[in-house]
């Protein structure tokens, strides 16, 4: 039995492994780079060893340093997590040669599945269905072109040593083949030091289905059913679920049996995943599901399998590495319920999914679903590593209930100032085709314009910001004059508040919004002289303009210029009736357009602005008289 374990990884997966090890009574050792000195996985472990500078190539990818850390601390076993050195057969062998326990498959199994062309040949011999294609040794451009023509376009060129979508090109026509081949080989050489490729028939309605397998040193192999990982962006998984939507019992039995045959073919031990590509043009059918590759490690999406089977896969890894047999027989494993996982990334979908880094001043995720994370409030998202900061997993009796639960969880996510893809994930879950189970690996690309929406303040967000500003300004602490702002003897009480969001000034009538049953008070946080309102996965920043600072004020209906500028649009005339929130005019200042709106329902009784006019800060541009009750 393992008594002390070193985790050769960082972030979320390191924390995940530590959690199970602690429950099993196993002491843990973390390793960390300069950038991770204060990271959560370092704080969570019993011991921690520094292994080098921030770049992974100088720390987490240096096997000698990791083995030395294990010897230094007396750790008898090493768990590689996923990524980094987890599928490196040379590192696995070095761990074993050092007299340590490797928590993973045999190096020979890793090697057998490491090259896609060799793996496909092996799978074909084992009776596992393989996508039509070419994996021959003749790598001349002429031979590859002839094979592609014979397969029929579109075809997929894949680097034999590839992964993560690198070294992969789809070719739609014969005339494009040579250029795509050279581009693919160039990327493969740079990424893997190996420019050999294979060819596959392109599947027109592809779904990514994978099967979790486990083997032990006693000759046992079982599967823990399938997962659907079809929602991908640029070949990177975004949302995963188990079981796969639309999977019938007969097809499940065949694909899972094929996965077990695949694992047996390489004498597999530990956790592994057999990945299949399914032609879903006529639904999921066993004769249209083909082997793609095997991941010889734990997968990022393993929690959804844990949730539907009740099995702790990390515990199984540790027990099997310690020489124990698989804890359950195949007939004892069952599917219960449905689980969906969303990967929360520190990135900005509105800016082309660019990574977002910095200190997490606010980091609150829901507590009523499973959250696997490697960060907490005040931790820093580093530029050196994968931008995934958490996985949010919802489990329910059925798929639709799980979708609803995960949607609600993403609604309540609060992260600032680091940007995340929470709202994007939420839109994926709300998409009609996703809910109907009409999935393909091209789903996100086909729907990207619908899924990436800019966060605009809703009535609830504006109301929350206005109420929050009132609190920040101290109004609640001045009962003598609280409630008198906007007071008139001949009209209902009004309480207008000015707010600025991304250059646009909004004047919000608190009292009017209180009468709207659809307006809800949301979560918010005061930040750097402004405030942030959290809504539907978005974090909306509001500045708090005041007349003294050159901002708009609409107390008692006076519309003031928030700063010096030019009136570029005038939407009303003197005497016009207006509704609360209606745009009155647009002021251009500091290269931004500021829409000035009516603070309440009423009438424009004075209009001092004209289109094209230059105005000074705090100039009265208009006066709106409230509508009499």
Kindly describe this structure.
- There is one protein chain.
- The protein has 629 residues and is an alpha+beta fold.
- It folds into 5 domains: 4-103, Rossmann fold (3-Layer(aba) Sandwich); 107-131 and 206-336, 2-Layer Sandwich (D-amino Acid Aminotransferase, Chain A, domain 1), CATH 3.30.470; 132-201, Dna Ligase, domain 1 (2-Layer Sandwich); 337-454, D-amino Acid Aminotransferase, Chain A, domain 1 (2-Layer Sandwich), CATH 3.30.470; 459-626, OB fold (Dihydrolipoamide Acetyltransferase, E2P) (Beta Barrel).
- Strands 14-13-10-11-12-15-22-20 form an 8-stranded antiparallel sheet, sandwiched between helices. The chain has a 5-stranded parallel sheet with strand order 3-2-1-4-5. Strands 6-9-7-8 form a 4-stranded antiparallel sheet.
- The N and C termini lie far apart (79 Å).
- The model is unreliable at 475-493 and 546-555 (pLDDT under 50).
What would the keywords be for this entry?
five-stranded parallel β-sheet, Rossmann fold, 629 residues, D-amino Acid Aminotransferase, Chain A, domain 1, eight-stranded antiparallel β-sheet, 5 domains, 27% helix, alpha+beta, Dna Ligase, domain 1
Number of helical elements: 17
Low-pLDDT stretches:
475-493, 546-555
Find the CATH superfamily of the largest domain: RNA polymerase II/Efflux pump adaptor protein, barrel-sandwich hybrid domain
Please write the CATH class name of the largest domain.
Mainly Beta
CATH level-3 fold name of the largest domain: OB fold (Dihydrolipoamide Acetyltransferase, E2P)
Question: Which secondary-structure class do the elements indicate?
Answer: alpha+beta
Helix content: 25-40%
What separation lies between the terminal Cα atoms? 79 Å
Number of strands: 36
Summed over residues and divided by their number, the pLDDT gives a mean of: 90
C-alpha geometry: elongated
Radius of gyration: 29 Å
- What oligomeric state best describes the polypeptide chains here? single chain
CATH architecture label of the largest domain: Beta Barrel
What is the spatial order of strands in the main beta sheet?
A: 14-13-10-11-12-15-22-20
User: What can be said about the biggest beta sheet?
Assistant: 8 strands, antiparallel
